[in-house]
Specification:
Elements (H helix, E strand, L loop, with lengths): L1 E3 L2 H7 L2 H9 L4 E2 H8 L3 H13 L3 E9 L2 E8 L3 E3 L1 H4 L2 H4 L6 H24 L19 H21 L25
Parallel strand pairs: 1-5
Antiparallel strand pairs: 2-4, 3-4
Helix pairs in contact: 3-4
């Protein structure tokens, strides 16, 4: 059994793609097999596998010679036990807050959910009540992004606590940020 109590090792395993890789690696597989299953480029899968291997979360099972190269067969390290204290509390809710993959996954899910609800509302002759907040902020230093996110999280927590009602209709609030696209000359 491998006991994992280092937050950095746990953080490495929490991105959506790495969680999926660890799930698939319950059974031994190669990067090529995993890439085909996930419909991702093998190089991208290899990168994530190397990071998981460095952290001790996946292990080499065997190496095979195939068409002039060595194919590595990996699996999730046996008997992994993650200290609940490392992933407990707010960390589990914001585990992917800086992962672009997670932002894309959430945005795609939001589009899918709202489109379905909008279609159903239109079919019933009703209006779907939503709200959108959008702004642009310029950070002087890269570390300001983290401080801003912490402050925003706390502000949202306070507002949610004020308005949340056990018997009310649930709404999903999503806040995400990404670098603003560069504007071409003439655009405001």
């Amino acid at each position: 059994m491998q006991y994992v109590d280092e937050p950095e090792k746990v953080r490495l395993a929490l991105s959506p793609i790495r969680r999926r890789l660890l799930e698939l690696l319950r059974e031994p597989a190669s990067a090529t097999q995993l890439a085909a299953t996930l419909d991702l480029p093998r190089q991208r899968v290899n990168y994530h596998l190397r990071e998981l291997e460095k952290a001790g979360l996946v292990e080499l099972v065997e190496e095979r010679q195939r068409r002039g190269f060595t194919e590595r067969i990996l699996r999730a390290s046996s008997g992994l036990f993650v200290d609940p204290g490392v992933v407990g509390g707010a960390f589990t809710q914001i585990q992917d807050q800086y992962a672009a993959e997670h932002l894309v996954e959430v945005a795609a899910g939001t589009v899918r959910d709202v489109a379905r609800m909008q279609s159903a509302a239109e079919a019933d002759g009703k209006r779907l009540l939503t709200f959108t907040l959008e702004t642009e902020v310029r950070f002087a230093e890269p570390g300001d992004v983290h401080r801003f996110t912490d402050a925003l999280t706390e502000a949202v927590r306070r507002v949610v606590a004020e308005y949340d009602s056990e018997s009310g209709r649930p709404y999903r609030l999503i806040a995400g940020g990404h670098p603003a696209p560069r504007r071409t000359e003439g655009e405001r």
